[in-house]
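Please, structure for the following, as tokens.
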Amino acid sequence: MSARSDALSAARLLLRASRGEDGTVDGSKAKSLVRRIGEAKPRGHILILDTFRRLLRLELEAREAHIESATVLSDEAKASLEADITARHGKDISYHYQTSADLIGGLRIRVGSDVWDGTVKARLDRLGLAFS
């Protein structure tokens, strides 16, 4: 195996070991594991820790929903969106709302690497590409 694939395997093991009983990443466990790897300095430890950091970042981003709309959303609309996102992506998600008039209308939702873009601006951009 290559050093990069070895580091990825080790980082995935570290990610599994850093999970708490509820399945989410436990910060104190992750810090303890990083400290132990730093002290032991196994072969390729810098690559392992860098890969572990990247996996942690992706894991934490998957627990955040960024919702962008053209207008301010009502409390009912927010509750409905949050229920749908929770059903699709699980519990313990934090929600961040932003208003941007540039979207013209609709919503753009990003949870981790998943993006749903139902904005008028995106539709107009796709239409413009189709005619160019």
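The first strand starts at residue 64 and ends at 69. The chain has a mean pLDDT of 92.
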